[in-house]
From TrEMBL:
Pfam families reported for this sequence: OprB (PF04966), SLH (PF00395)
NCBIfam families hit by this protein: por_somb
Gene Ontology molecular function terms on file: porin activity
Protein's GO biological process: carbohydrate transport
Domain SLH: 44-108
Official protein name in the record: Possible porin
Similarity field: Belongs to the OprB family.
Gene: som
Any single Gene Ontology cellular-component annotation: membrane
Entry coiled-coil feature ranges: 94-139
The keyword Protease appears for this protein: no
InterPro entries in the cross-refs: Carb-sel_porin_OprB (IPR007049), Cell_Envelope_Struct_Comp (IPR051465), Por_som-like (IPR047684), SLH_dom (IPR001119)
Domain of life, source organism: Bacteria
Keyword terms of this UniProt record: Coiled coil, Signal
């Protein structure tokens, strides 16, 4: 007998085996006959005149009537729920329920026969799935690790125009049409389901191309996807991320990036990233300079109802990868004076559709400013942590004089995107300001050089605006347009006038071929990437036009 039949029959069977509730004199055979031979079966509990919703067994009785239809009453329309049950009455109730169970069983048997073929097919499929799952479990890479990959093929070229004395050498160095690649393999490992040990392997061959920024000190032609490992597979990320409570997350590792340890990414631009200035640094490379190395970070995100805006805050420290693993305290170390350290903080208020973030980065001497004009890049010399101050008896250089240089960098970024795709694009904007401080030493004679001091930049600025349309022409395709001014010097330490202004633009369209393959043709233009190093602001001209086709494979 099936389990649900046993559960149904058990109470009645117990009633049959129990001693009589009253003596034989109390039996009323006529009443039992009336109960078992009621003129019609009860189909609703409302048919009983003496059963009320306040009765303690009201719901149980209702279920027996409506689900199983095996409860009868007396011809008078009464149930007599408070009356003791005789063994004859229990037998009548049990008989009615068994009849009903037999009906249900016959119906199920008919259905099983009717759908026998379909059930056999389903059973075969389940058996096949079980076999495949068993095979996957036996041959799986890891029970804790998942592999995600991205491979990008890049076809394209750049061409410089303007003064031939500037453009010809540039075109000769990096002006050829090239076919390159970038490969990223990410290993996501979790031990608790909430933590993440992230390891990324990377390889590429863009080292001698414009896509890595060759030919310009400020590297403004560098793509966000650029990789220059010389076809050698390297590890470029290795860190551990874990939550503490509901609102805090901590990150630590020997290879982590400051732009990946933020409360929010303050932009809606970059479904397909082209120039690193627009997509990678969000137009504010002074703060979001993508410094990678030994790092730790703390992130706080306010817990709110889903969809409601929330505050977030983050702070991180990153020592450059070349210094964090350097055991010589005069040239490197982790959290030392020569670590080329970055302290990056962010305070943000955002929702799914919009957000605003204030960013700050303190940069030790030697820290790079990522993307800017050649004059910005030239300024790196005074940011060196150590200067040559003399020679020892063996003629070796002595590095014991710090330059004292450091930078304070600020950024404001905001974004907004429409609720539904259409003609209205998402809008992302950013503005950055960098201020340099410290003593500026001439490497030639190791003294403070008054002649150079007036020509040393002490302030940079940058800004960008990016527009992005979704579902353009076809669902899943995107169109992007961005413009702005990469980092340019706005003031010098002396009274010298600077003419470092420049502009950058990009236009791209991402065509989603399949869920895992996309093609993105793009063009970009740099009006004056060398900035003031171009020469006279009126006579000397130098600009760059570029085009690429990026094919992305995700797996």
């Amino acid at each position: 007998m099936k389990l649900f039949q046993q559960l149904l029959v058990a109470p009645a069977a117990l009633g049959l085996m129990a001693p009589m509730a009253s003596n034989a004199a109390d039996l009323a055979i006529k009443g039992v006959s009336d109960y078992s031979a009621s003129s019609e079966q009860v189909t609703s509990i409302s048919q009983f005149q003496d059963v009320y919703p306040t009765d303690w067994a009201y719901q149980a009785l209702s279920n027996l009537i409506e689900r199983y239809g095996c409860v009868a009453g007396y011809p008078s329309g009464s149930y007599l729920g408070n009356r003791a049950m005789t063994r004859f009455e229990a037998a009548a109730l049990l008989n009615a329920c068994l009849d009903r169970i037999t009906e249900v069983t016959d119906e199920l048997r008919r259905l099983l026969n009717e759908f026998e073929q379909e059930l056999a097919i389903l059973k075969g499929r389940v058996d096949g799935l079980e076999a495949r799952v068993g095979e996957l479990e036996a041959t799986q890479f890891s029970t804790t690790t998942k592999l995600k990959g991205k491979s990008i093929f890049v076809l394209g070229a750049v061409n410089a125009g303007g003064d031939e004395s500037l453009s010809d050498p540039y075109n000769e160095e990096v002006g050829a049409f090239t076919f390159t690649y970038d490969l990223r393999l990410g290993l996501n490992t979790s031990f608790t389901g909430k933590d993440l040990l992230y390891t990324r392997l990377r390889s590429g061959n863009m080292g001698s191309t414009a896509w890595e920024g060759e030919g310009l000190k400020g590297s403004l032609t560098a793509l966000d996807t650029a990789s220059a490992t010389g076809d050698i597979v390297t590890i470029d990320r290795l860190y551990y991320r874990f939550p503490v409570g509901d609102e805090f997350t901590f990150i630590a590792g020997p290879l982590a990036r400051n732009t990946e340890m933020l409360g929010i990414k303050p932009t809606a631009y970059g479904k397909s990233k082209v120039l690193d200035y627009f997509g990678g640094t969000m137009g504010t490379p002074g703060v979001y300079n993508k410094e990678t190395g030994g790092a730790f970070a703390a992130i706080w995100k306010q817990k709110t109802s889903k969809g409601d805006p929330a505050f977030s805050a983050s702070v991180s420290y990153v020592s450059d990868a070349g210094e964090a693993n350097d055991g010589n305290p005069s040239t490197g170390g982790f959290m030392t004076d020569n670590a080329e350290g970055n302290i990056t903080g962010q305070l943000a208020y955002s929702s799914k559709r919009w957000g605003v973030a204030l960013g700050y980065r303190y940069g030790q001497c030697g820290v790079k400013f990522r993307r800017g004009t050649d004059l910005v890049a030239d300024n790196k010399w005074h940011q060196n942590c150590q200067q040559v101050v003399g020679f020892d008896s063996d003629g070796d250089e002595v590095f014991d004089q710090r330059s004292g240089a450091y930078s304070n960098n600020f950024a404001v970024n905001a974004y907004w995107q429409p609720e539904d795709s259409g003609w209205i694009p998402s809008v992302s904007a950013g503005w950055g300001l960098s201020s340099l401080s410290g003593d500026f030493y001439d490497l030639a004679d190791n003294d403070l050089e008054d002649d150079l001091e007036d020509q040393v930049p002490d302030q940079f600025q940058s800004w960008m605006v990016g527009l992005q349309w979704s579902d353009v022409f076809m669902e899943g395709n995107y169109l992007g347009l961005a413009g702005g001014q990469p980092q340019f010097v706005t003031s010098l330490t002396g009274d010298e006038t600077t003419y470092d202004g420049n502009y950058a633009f990009e236009l791209w369209y991402k065509f989603q071929v399949t869920d895992n393959i996309s093609i993105t043709p793009a063009v970009f233009y740099l009006s004056r990437p060398m900035g003031q190093d171009t020469g006279d602001q009126y006579d000397n001209k130098f600009n760059i036009f570029g085009g690429v086709v990026q094919t992305t494979f995700k797996f």
